[in-house]
Amino acid sequence: MKIGIVGAGVVGAYLACRLSSRYNVEIFDKKQKDDLGHDCAWLFHYSDLRNYCEKCKLDPVNYLEHVGRLFDFFGVPVTINDQITFNKHQFLLDLLMRVNGVHFESKISKNDLDDYDLVIDATGSSRNILPSVHKLEPNCFIHCYQLEVESHDLPNDFYVHPAGLGFLWAFPRRGNITRVGCGSFTTNPKKEVEGYLTNKNYKLLRICSGTIRVVPPSKSKPFLLVGQPNIVGVGECIGVVSPLTGEGIRSALRCADLFIDALESNLNVYGRGVLEKFNHVDQEFALLEALRHHQIQTLWRLLKISSPFGLKISKGAALKMLFDKNHLKNMQKTFSGMYL
Ligand SMILES: Cc1cc2nc3c(=O)[nH]c(=O)nc-3n(C[C@H](O)[C@H](O)[C@H](O)COP(=O)(O)OP(=O)(O)OC[C@H]3O[C@@H](n4cnc5c(N)ncnc54)[C@H](O)[C@@H]3O)c2cc1C
Which of 31, 40, 45, 213 gives a 20 to 30 Å CA spacing to 246? Predict the structure, then answer.
């Protein structure tokens, strides 16, 4: 079987690595090699990094950058033990090392793909190969602005604070290098980042902005188009990103695993598997909408059933967020207008 993968982000590169030993695989990305994986803040989970490295015979230590201890989440210190930043760029390049047909700077459209038996749409937020979901999509992109800077004046652990209806984050890499970014529906992310960096000494290393697509899987169908070629969507392009946090690496890779299992057994079960596994994304999406109308009750439900960025928020921290007027206001402002 000849498989064409469009997009060499985390899904495309991982699938290319896993599938190339058994199938004839070619992978394309519109970016140049040096830019791969940079439109992301690189927050990940060490347990997942270990797991996926093992599957691809890579050493996780080569990618580990910052190990989180205390997450400053909306002013509430939350103890963490699995959150890290990792060098996603190098991880993607290493995944692609054993793949023969890797093509950078190749922007692909559906018409370029007639030669393949199976095409994987791994184009992330742009969903360039599968048909778009017109009615919903204009309201469901978080546009982000992000800088990589070198500075002694920034937090030395994970930091996330509200920015209008969105977040501002500072995630340390190694040394004094930090990714400072903002994604928001109501404020200008660029101004938020620049405002945060005002009066801080820093050296700009890279602009690494991007867009997050927060359309849940149930509203991202079809996942699979049968034809010549068959086209299947995996990762962010079919809505697995957390609408509350924008976190998408872990879910994209889990979605890729579901796809691999289905490819080896029965591709038709893939869609059902995605809907089952990522049911919580629909819940988060629904919670965001409900939050606009039932503030405290919904916020309480949100804190109980969801764990933003994989954080385990203690009851004490949750109560603080609920009853501290500023935290509550900030949480509501952040989450409530996402789908206005
Ligand atoms: C600023 C920002 C910060 C983020 N930070 C985090 C974070 O810290 N942790 C986290 O878990 N998630 C984060 N995310 C989300 C996460 O990056 C994505 O959800 C995840 O990478 C999705 O993986 P993917 O492989 O599905 O898509 P992507 O990683 O987006 O990969 C898609 C690839 O397809 C390529 N492509 C698109 N169209 C074409 C075409 N027509 N032809 C060829 N190539 C094409 C693109 O160039 C890209 O390389 C962040 C997102 C943004 C925008």
Answer: 31
